[in-house]
Design a protein that fits this description.
The protein is an alpha/beta fold. It has a single domain, classed as Rossmann fold (3-Layer(aba) Sandwich). The protein is built from 6 helices and 9 strands, in the order E-H-E-H-E-H-E-H-E-H-E-E-H-E-E. The strands form 3 sheets. A 4-stranded mixed beta sheet has the order 4-5-6-7. A 3-stranded parallel beta sheet has the order 1-2-3, sandwiched between helices. The longest helix has 26 residues. The chain binds 5-O-phosphono-beta-D-ribofuranosylamine.
């Protein structure tokens, strides 16, 4: 799992994995920065961690190759970006394309990018939400696994709205990753379906 911040999505998955029937093991947690709560959560759970900061590499491609190698070394079936604020590059997608998931705090294709909740609020939509998708080479453009809606309230702030989105986002992530692990999934013409 890849994180850049608070890691509440990671925590939700870690909590779910305590039940063996859930069928998922988090094999490692990677980050692009030190001293974040996401890494502390992994360490408390006894899960191996690694950190690769873009600025420590001569180029973005070098960083991407190192991230890819670290992920590969843990032999994951899926890689999940949850609040990981970096775009994966060519090496990473060559290795993990089709099994690299990202969760986004808006109903894609509306409001892609780093400021989904603020953009939804500014636009004045009445419903926004969260999207789990399979990452492709675009920005938040990949095949959609699941979406959950969240009503926008008249007196919402970005923080209040994002926190309410995160509640459904975590539940969606736990549900879907469990199903993908237990049932498998297919992607045909952008349609993601659970099962073989
Ligand atoms: C999530 O809403 C994610 O979609 C967004 O940042 C938030 C990360 O939350 N990109 P957390 O670190 O899992 O608490």
């Amino acid at each position: 799992m890849l994180v850049s911040g608070a890691g509440t999505n990671l925590q939700a998955l870690l909590d779910a994995t305590r039940d063996p029937a859930y069928g998922v093991e988090v094999v490692a947690v990677g980050a692009d920065r030190d001293s974040i709560e996401g890494l502390a959560r992994a360490e408390r759970a006894g899960i191996p961690t690694f950190v690769h900061r873009v600025r420590d590499f001569p180029s973005r491609e070098d960083w991407d190759r190192e991230l890819t190698a670290s992920c590969r070394s843990h032999r994951p079936d899926l890689v999940i970006s949850a609040g990981f604020m970096k775009l994966a590059g060519e090496s990473f997608l060559a290795e993990f394309g089709g099994r690299y998931l990202n969760t986004h705090p808006a109903l894609l294709p509306a409001f892609p990018g780093m400021t989904g909740p603020a953009d939804a609020l500014d636009y004045g939509v009445k419903v926004t939400g969260a999207t789990l998708f399979v990452v492709d080479a675009g920005v938040d453009t990949g095949p959609i696994v699941a979406q959950r809606a969240v009503p926008v309230e008249d007196d919402d702030t970005v923080e209040l709205l994002h926190e309410r989105i995160k509640v459904v986002e975590r539940a969606m992530l736990v549900d879907c990753v469990g199903r993908m692990a237990r049932e498998g999934f297919t992607i045909t013409d952008r349609k993601v379906r659970f099962g073989q």
